[in-house]
Amino acid sequence: MTRISTGAELRTTGDGGDGLVLCVNGGQARELEGTWSASVEWLVRRLAPRLPRLSFAELRYRVRSWRRLDACVEDARAALREVASARVLLLGFSMGGAVAISVADAPSVRGVLGLAPWLPDELDVAPIAGKRLAVVHGALDRALPGIPGVSPALSRRGLERARAAGAECAYTLVPGGVHGVALRAPWGGLVPLPRARRWAELVEDELRRFAAGG
């Protein structure tokens, strides 16, 4: 685990030579200390052994809140400087989708893979122009009382705005999928959510495309 210049933290898996996947977490309204993403961690544990030519870096923000989106973006830019990879794919879960698109203009970034990404209508999508945006979203995802979620309609609108800005785009719905891939149990273990294996298959397909130079 590495503390980067902003005070956020990175942990890395693998040392492959075909590129690096920088994973950025979601958030919530309350301004709480950053945590590791259960969904991202479950995917990295499952996919890293299958993709040994890729490296993975997971980012833990200083504060995990969309009210502090600017600070999360600052953490992501610092993480890109820290990893210093020539080829990066940004994997953004939930709020991490907005963070990833905001830093996609970095020269090393080849594209963004958004998992149930929060792409609010006011988000500037210009940084993704000329690059690839692939979105995977659970068909049943939605915000419920006390339970965070992102409507697929919101990510679809964001993707269409990115397409209009000049991004290459792909959109996939996961039937039966909810918001996320896994939860962290009270004892610390990871519990996969419905259709987690299908999420993993779709993410693996996109990562293989990136590793092959796409």
Tell me what the structure shows.
By secondary structure, the chain is an alpha/beta fold. The protein contains 5 helices and 12 strands. The chain has a single domain, classed as Alpha/Beta hydrolase fold, catalytic domain (Rossmann fold, 3-Layer(aba) Sandwich). It is globular, with a radius of gyration of 15 Å.
Number of helices: 5
Give the mean pLDDT: 92
Topology as a string of helices (H) and strands (E) = EEEEHEEHEHEEHEEEH
Shape: globular
Radius of gyration: 15 Å
Major sheet details: 8 strands, mixed
Instruction: Name the structural class.
Output: alpha/beta
Total beta strand runs: 12
| Separation, N- and C-terminal Cα atoms | 29 Å
Unreliable segments (pLDDT under 50, ≥5 consecutive)?
none
Short description:
With 214 residues, this protein is an alpha/beta fold. The chain has helices at 38-47, 69-83, 95-102, 152-164, 196-211, and strands at 2-3, 9-13, 20-24, 32-33, 55-60, 63-64, 88-93, 109-115, 132-138, 168-174, 182-184, 190-192.
Task: Based on the model shown, name its key terms.
214 residues, alpha/beta, Rossmann fold, eight-stranded mixed sheet, 5 helices, 26% strand, globular
